[in-house]
Write a structure and sequence with these properties.
383 residues, 18-stranded antiparallel β-barrel, Porin, mainly beta
């Protein structure tokens, strides 16, 4: 909550100092209602009863725009209620506040994120501890600055800090943790359509009251991006990475391959990444993820989208008294939507997910489907 107050106070102070420069306030809201079924919400390897659920979601966006300043506040609330299993009922809250200042040769940004959800949301693809259904709360603060030094050369710096807390999680394997990361990018434009950058990153994981969990990860990557054939773009990034503690270290490689296509009635993105990320077990994990996203308008009002991901997460630098193993998580879903009016959309979603823990020779399977009603409000200017 301290980071929340700092970000909010800074946002209001800067916004107030620029309010005299033709400030424009806008507001836009969105909402949805959903009814569906899930045959294994907890991703349990044991037999799990099928449950029906109803959920509603509300999102609002309040923004301030001046000649050089942009400030937004985006709260989102999700309520989910299940039949036959009230322990699954949950209310999730997400708040994002961002501040962007633009100058002739650069831009600076400050973003604060606050999340209150449960492990049924936060742990999928990260650990095998989704089924314990404990409350999870996270705060994150990101500060970045980009500077254009010459026509071709620019730099980007970033500082990121997050604090994660799990309520009543004793004897579950979940622990509270803090993580911070600093990054510096040196970017050079080769042509109008291609760019080369050298990126340096260092991060540190800390678990309160358990200093033996502390770990540092660092990496250096070379990245090449290119836009070609008008609608296509690609990114290729790779470099060495190292994770170390007071007792040991482990070296490896991080990378990203991303190719996408955007057209008037369709879009396609294929992405393959390997990175180092903290988990709710108070460890750093090497995460490899393959994701595919496809969208197409079938008619003026009907659209079809497909989303799939495969995640392999392996815990790094395990000590003898810690028996945390890697997780394999796959999820694929298809959505058929019908735009009823310019602001109201009906859709049907169906999907399948499975998860396997390395030391358990059992596969948790999950099938789900839902009928959804989305409402998107028009943007209103506030006077």
């Amino acid at each position: 909550m301290i980071m929340a107050r700092v970000a909010f106070t800074a946002g209001l102070a800067i916004a107030s100092s620029h309010s005299a420069h033709a400030a424009v306030w806008t507001n836009a809201a969105q909402g949805s209602v959903r009814y569906g079924y899930d045959d294994n919400t907890r991703m349990s390897v044991q037999t799990s009863p099928t449950v029906n659920y109803a959920s509603t979601e509300f999102t609002d966006e309040l923004s301030l725009q001046t000649e050089s300043l942009s400030w937004t506040l985006d709260p989102r609330v999700v309520l989910m209620r299940y039949d036959h299993d009230s322990e699954l009922n949950r209310t999730e809250t997400y708040v994002t506040s961002s501040l962007l200042h633009q100058s002739d040769t650069g831009q600076s940004s400050l973003q604060f994120n606050w999340t209150q959800d449960t492990t049924l949301t936060s742990e999928f693809g990260s650990t095998s501890l989704a089924g314990v259904n404990k409350r999870h709360q996270a705060s994150a603060l990101t500060m970045s600055h980009g500077q254009q030094w010459t026509e071709r050369f620019s730099t980007q710096s970033m500082l990121y800090a997050t604090a994660n807390h799990y309520m009543k999680a004793q004897n579950t394997g979940l622990v509270n943790y803090n993580y911070g990361r600093a990054q510096l990018d040196l970017q050079y434009s080769l042509t109008r359509h291609s760019q080369l950058s050298l990126d340096f990153s260092i991060g540190k994981l800390q678990v309160p009251n358990q200093p033996e969990y502390g770990k540092v990860n660092q990496s250096a990557t070379l990245t090449y991006t290119r836009t070609f054939a008008e609608r296509w773009s690609a990114k290729l990034s790779a470099g060495p990475s190292q994770v170390k503690s007071d007792f040991s270290k482990e070296s490896g490689t991080v990378y990203e391959f991303n190719i996408s296509r955007k057209a008037e009635i369709s879009s396609l993105q294929l992405k393959l990444t390997r990175d180092i990320t903290p988990t709710g077990q108070g460890t750093l994990s090497r995460r490899q993820q393959l994701s595919l996203t496809a969208y197409r308008d079938l008619t003026e009002r009907i659209n079809l989208s497909l989303t799939g991901s495969a995640i392999q997460s392996d815990t790094l630098l395990l000590s003898r008294n810690l028996n945390f193993y890697g997780v394999r998580y796959n999820d694929i879903n298809i959505n058929l939507g019908w735009r009823w009016t310019p602001t109201v959309t009906l859709s049907i979603t169906a999907g399948h997910a499975d998860q396997r823990q390395q030391n358990v020779d059992q596969l948790a399977k999950r099938n789900y489907a839902s009928l959804n009603l989305f409402w998107s409000g028009l943007t209103h200017t506030l006077h």
